[in-house]
Prior knowledge:
13 helices, three-stranded mixed sheet, alpha/beta, N-(1-d-carboxylethyl)-l-norvaline Dehydrogenase, domain 2, Rossmann fold, binds NADP nicotinamide-adenine-dinucleotide phosphate
Amino acid sequence: MIGFIGLGIMGNHMAENLLDNGQELIVHNRTKAKADNLLNKGAKWAESPAQVAKEANVIFTMLTNEAAVEGMAFGDNGFLNGDMKGKLWVDCSTVDPKFSELMARESEAYHVRFLDAPVSGSKIPAQKGELIFLVGGNEADLKEIRPLLEIMGKAIQYHGVNGKGSSMKLVINLMLAQSMAAFSEAIHFGEAIGLEKETVIDTLLNSPTAAPILKLKRDKLLNNEFAEEFPLEHMHKDLNLVAQAAYASNTAMPVANATKELFGMAKQKGLGRKDLSAIYQYITERE
Ligand SMILES: NC(=O)c1ccc[n+]([C@@H]2O[C@H](COP(=O)([O-])OP(=O)(O)OC[C@H]3O[C@@H](n4cnc5c(N)ncnc54)[C@H](OP(=O)(O)O)[C@@H]3O)[C@@H](O)[C@H]2O)c1
């Protein structure tokens, strides 16, 4: 039996792919209603994270941030207290690499094996089972769960010891945030000096200067439609993780910090639960 905790945008699709591929699943989420589609397909509901641990051999977590992960892992009803001895915990949440290292040490104290396995790819890749897993931890543990990751993803990258998966994830998201902001500003500039929006977008997307991932955001920007795939507030959180990790390693990150504040301002304006591409809306808004 596989346990899945955290059934938001990403976790729900990931769990659904496991179910659709014949895996038996026990699930838990703070908001039970988000599990409905999975329960209708035969997943079992656990009243607490501890119950997930009791019945599952492997537990996946896909939660917003460190506080949410700690809330589910520890405490009387936490899964680490739920008969996890010898089992494997795979945390797919995007968190500080130091936090992943800490969770690995905490897990060891509970005789639990731990992998950090955050993902690259958003709602649609999660839906299609085309995520890229960035894994840190023991390679033998990764081998054990590789078939499950292959159901949910199209690539599994091993990056080294615990924390390295989370480290790689921050590097990738830093590039994504900066690319998204730079692309938005370039379109805004093009329009301001008299070019047509669609022409600017398509010319940039077909030039080597644009990151390939931006193609996925073309229609959102063109139509000013920013329904969330990757919530903007999560990107703000990730940029904050970048800033923290950079500070801790005595590294100056001027562009990253400016980008972080840009996303923070957009969040402050109420765009937190829109897609990260809504940074275009924030940049282009005029009184
Ligand atoms: N969306 C993306 O494109 C994407 C891509 C790659 C990585 N990620 C990362 O994947 C993780 C999940 O993202 P998502 O987009 O699926 O987020 P989401 O839709 O906001 O879901 C967040 C999940 O965390 C739970 N949660 C939040 N705070 C909690 C708390 N204090 N206690 C218990 N549970 C809590 C939520 O429970 P409720 O349902 O009760 O709110 C939900 O299950 C994040 O770390 C994000 O940065 C996201």
